[in-house]
Amino acid sequence: MSILHLGQMTWNEVQTFVSEKVVALLPLGSLVAHGPHLPLNTDVVIATEMAKRASRKLSTHGSQVLICPPVAYSPALQGKDFAGTMNVAPGAYSNYLRSLMADLAGMGLRTVCLVSCHVDPSHLQAVAQCRVALAGALGPEAMKVVFPDLTQEPWVHLMPAEFRNGSGHAGHFETSCMLAIHAEHVREDVRKKLPKVTASLTAGVLEGKSGFAECGGPKAYFGDPAGATSSHGEDFLEALATIIVDSLEEPKPPA
Q1: Domains, the chain, ranges and CATH?
Q2: Pairing mode, if any, of strands 144-146 and 64-67?
Q3: pLDDT class for 35, splitting at 50, 70, 90?
Q4: By the 8 A CB rule, do 26 and 71 touch?
Q5: What is the pTM of this model?
Q6: Which residues 6+ apart lie within 8 Å of 92 measured at CB?
């Protein structure tokens, strides 16, 4: 079946291809500090790769897939004190996503999956607010907007232990993913010398702390980036792609 990229198509091709049977994947990323070894757009890169891999799986299942250009700016409150981080106001971001969803629905799409591994609480809350606001707001043939929140069940238990423990930001998990996607973008000379940070970003947030440094990550990373490998990244990315596919499956009626 077909996999097309919206940004690479002409308007005529979009008009011909898009129908209610097409599944759209919209990667959501951020521009936020990811330690001294990963680029600011790490979340954008990983989300885009998740969409590509998920599209291949969906295609083998018989789906037609439209991959949208990523949304690169989003709420990133935890990294706001680090140079280069772009922290978009959550309300503005939620409204922006609502506008995008309305336009995608106007094109004739009926299923959109928001693809993201950016788990800053301000971002997750903005996405949740958007989805609540969209409920019943796109006309009688409402579009289904799917968002597998990796911090929640049934998905979180499929994530590596570092992620579940709240130490996944720019650590072994994300660094491995980047080594598998774009190893040339990882500052290897820096990464290999980074000590493991055992502090939990999640625990810090729950304790009311604000920002990476206050939560125990003074260099904007947590976990063990020095232990990252591209082979682990391949495994993580395949698991992430499978989560996207599974999230799009219709729930089965109880037996």
Answers
A1: 3-247 (3.40.50.10310)
A2: unpaired
A3: very high
A4: yes
A5: 0.95
A6: none
